[in-house]
Amino acid sequence: MTAVGIDAVEIWTGNLKLDLPGTFAPEKGEDPEKYTKGLGLNASSFPDSYEDIVTMGANAAHRLMERKGLEPDDIGRIDVATESAFDNSKPVSTYVAGCLEQVYDGDFHHANKGERKFACIAGTQSLDDAYNWIRAGRSRGRSALVIATDTALYARGDDGEATQGAGAVAMLISEDPNLVELSAEQGYGSADETDFLKPNQQFPSVDGKRSVQVYLARMREALEDFESVAGEVHEEDFVYAPFHTPFPGMVRKAALLAYRHVIRDTEIEDDLATEIGRQPRPEAFDSDDEYRDALREYMDSLKRTDRYAEWYEATIDPTLTIAREVGNWYTGSVHVARASALKHALESDREMTGKKLLIGSYGSGAQAEIHSETVRDGWEEEITALNIDEQLAERYEMTWDDYEEIHDAHNHEMDVDVEEFTTPSEEFVFDGWGRMGERKYRYVE
Predict the structure, then answer these.
(1) Among 4, 8, 39, which residue's Cα sits nearest to residue 21?
(2) What Pfam family is a match, any one (predicted)?
């Protein structure tokens, strides 16, 4: 069976930067370590006044197509995953295609276009759709373009304000891919939840504590479901485990839960038993409360062991490097985590061909998905081509007054005119409104 997976990836971050410990924390009267150590964030990325989800997605896709030498006829479908859409009918993918048609001789009239919505997991669902489209024999030799693009904006003063971010990830899904092959096996955990939602409003309504609980519960279910079709997951099976990353502090919780699961009934649990005891089993307790108390105590002890710390440092921490500098990208966050992991492997001169990643995606509302990916022989060339370090370094660093202005500029409920902070070059930009209230775009040389 021919491998299907991600052939290439490109990342486009918003052109503005908010320094959390240096600018945000002083204005909030908070200890900077609340953000750097608590949330695990150093900075957030923001779109300039001429940027939005269309420009970021189109710019990432354009860079990918140029680098791969692609023309519109090479692309058979364009799927955009976002939870920042501004139209309830016309999909963002049509806007992106319209942008790209400004710079190519051909068009995308032949391409199937759509928009996926299920909070942050929609990016992975779009990957699944593209995978299935190729596997079903409907691609006619063409590839799929999957774009995850979001502006994660919260109301001023909201608890989530420090986790804001904006950017896009474009992925080319093909047969015989250069980057990673997607597994046919998947695991799901899904339930009707109200942990995070936007009922006809721009800013999300969030139950923070509930959101963490739901995230962990659905991830556990997805991992168990994945094992039911792929076999038991063990610590040594995967080199990296990129998770959905609303902020790195959330991943710390998910990673500990995952580690406890994969070492259960293994030699690792036996080895740790002399130090912290064996994992509590529900049948050994008279009540659920007693079991939960014992489990919480075990988890606290497990977190402090050298064995866990070494695993976390090697398997999880490298997936968070980019996220620390850009904040939450919603649908793109797990795909940023994958890129961050492989970037770390490249910089560490680590041989990855044939190695596996365990991908943990999540979307509020709520659903988690676990699948595995096998790194392909061309991965080094693909990751070398990323220019994310240059993008991060070139961002304009905002003052607090700048931040207040740009936040208002991207608030759909406010009509404000903010001068651009940066000068666009070789990128798509927002170019005003059309006769029916549609957004217009142009390419700046």
Answers:
(1) 39
(2) HMG_CoA_synt_N
Instruction: Give the percent of the chain with pLDDT over 90.
Output: 93
pTM of the model: 0.96
* Domain count along the chain: 1
Residue 319: exposure state from Cβ atoms within 10 A (0-12, 13-18, ≥19): buried
Exactly one of 244, 335, 371, 407 is catalytic; which is it? 244
| CB contact at 8 A, 120 and 323 | no
- pLDDT tens digits, 149-190: 999 999 999 989 999 999 999 999 999 999 999 999 999 999
Rounded to the nearest 10 degrees, how much is the dihedral formed by the CA atoms of 84, 87, 91, 94? -110
Catalytic residue of the set 99, 120, 407, 427: 120
| Catalytic residue chosen out of the listed positions 10, 51, 83, 221 | 83
Closest CA to 45 of 357, 365, 341, 393: 393
**DSSP string of 136-198, one letter each residue:** TT-STT-EEEEEEEEEE---TT-GGGGG-EEEEEEEEEEES-SSEEEEEEEEEEE----SEE-
**Contact between 41 and 21 (Cβ < 8 Å):** no
Domain encompassing residue 65: 4-444
Q: Is 244 a catalytic residue?
A: yes
- The CA-CA-CA angle for residues 69, 74, 78, to 5°, reads 110
Two tokens at 360?
Answer: 């943990």
The pLDDT of 89-103, averaged and rounded, is 98
Residue of higher predicted confidence among 195 and 324 = 324
Any idea what the CATH number is for the domain that residue 397 is in?
Answer: 3.40.47.10
**pLDDT confidence band for 345 (50 / 70 / 90):** very high
